[in-house]
Amino acid sequence: MRLLATIRALTGLGDAAGGTDHWWGQRISGVMLVFLGLWFVGSMVLLPSMEYDVVVEFVGVTANGVLLSLLCLVTAFHSHLGVQVVIEDYVHADGLHIFSIAASRLAHVVAAIVAVYAIVQIGTGA
Amino acid sequence: MTLSILHRATGVAMAVGFIVLAAWLVSAAAGPAEYERFVALMSTLVGQLLLIGWSFAFFYHFANGIRHLVWDTGRGFEKHQANASAWFVIVLAIVVTAILWIKLI
């Protein structure tokens, strides 16, 4: 029985399904952020200044806007998963536990939408 | 052990930083006046210290995250390897943060 349970978990049929999704999600988004993060920091360092015109011109370039949007979405996803683990480990009171995770998820979704909306606004000059 | 806590701490710090990144983009989308207000806010001593902190958090979490990804492949678990990579990651993060801000200031 022990062996069967393990196989069930490994094949994603048991309780471990959520856990493996979470694990893989964290890793895959982490690998994506290695590249996106490097691109973002490199781009910021290479900008001649952080003045309004320079920044708006940079974000307005389609490729930059797309990469920046991707960075924001993947960051929000990765961050949500990470913060969830921290909450699960340190917040034990039942109601507060669920509330904290829900609040964190909402905050991450809102921040990502707002960021991408702003990038599109800059890109379209609206 | 210490580095593991630091990985979480820098991650949570950057979760807050992400909201500031979104605010930066919103201010740029809102126009020059709003953008100047954001830049003025981040140019204060507190703003600069936060930015230095977030840049360190980024470089540390970045390097230590790669360390974790290497571990996930089953490599680097020997005690001397784990100790060496721990020192490498912490020194790298401090040095890169220092270089960045010496260049900026």
Largest sheet of chain B: none
Largest sheet of chain A: none
Segments of chain B where pLDDT lies below 50 for 5+ residues? none
Structural class of chain B: mainly alpha
Radius of gyration of chain B: 17 Å
Order of helices and strands of chain A: HHHHH
In DSSP terms, counting alpha (H) and pi (I) runs of 4 or more, how many helices of chain A?
A: 5
Number of domains of chain A: 1
Report, as a whole number of angstroms, the end-to-end distance of chain A.
62 Å
Question: How many β-strand runs of chain A?
Answer: 0
Question: Could you characterize the architecture of this molecule?
Answer:
The complex is a heterodimer of chains A (126) and B (105). With 126 residues, chain A is mostly helical. Chain A has one domain: Up-down Bundle (3 helical TM bundles of succinate and fumarate reductases). Chain A is built from 5 helices and no strands. Chain A has helices at residues 2-10, 16-46, 52-60, 62-90, 94-124. In chain A, helix 2 (16-46) crosses helix 4 (62-90) and helix 4 packs antiparallel against helix 5. The longest helix of chain A is centred in the first third of the chain and has 31 residues, at 16-46. Chain B is mostly helical and 105 residues long. Chain B has one domain (2-104): Fumarate reductase/succinate dehydrogenase, transmembrane subunit (3 helical TM bundles of succinate and fumarate reductases, Up-down Bundle). In chain B, 90% of the residues lie in helices and 0% in strands. Chain B has helices at residues 2-30, 32-43, 45-72, 79-104. The longest helix of chain B is centred in the N-terminal third of the chain and has 29 residues, at 2-30. Chain B is elongated. At the A-B interface, helix 2, helix 3, helix 4 and helix 5 of A face helix 1, helix 2 and helix 3 of B.
